[in-house]
Amino acid sequence: MSNKIVLGYDDSEAAKTALAFAVGLAKAQGAELVIAHVLEWSPYSFLTPEEIGERHKRRGEELKRAEEAVLAPVRKSLEDSGLTVSTELKYGHIAETLCDVIKQSGASHVIIGRTGHSALSSRLFGSVAGSLAQAAPVPVTIVP
Question: pTM for this structure?
Answer without folding.
Answer: 0.85
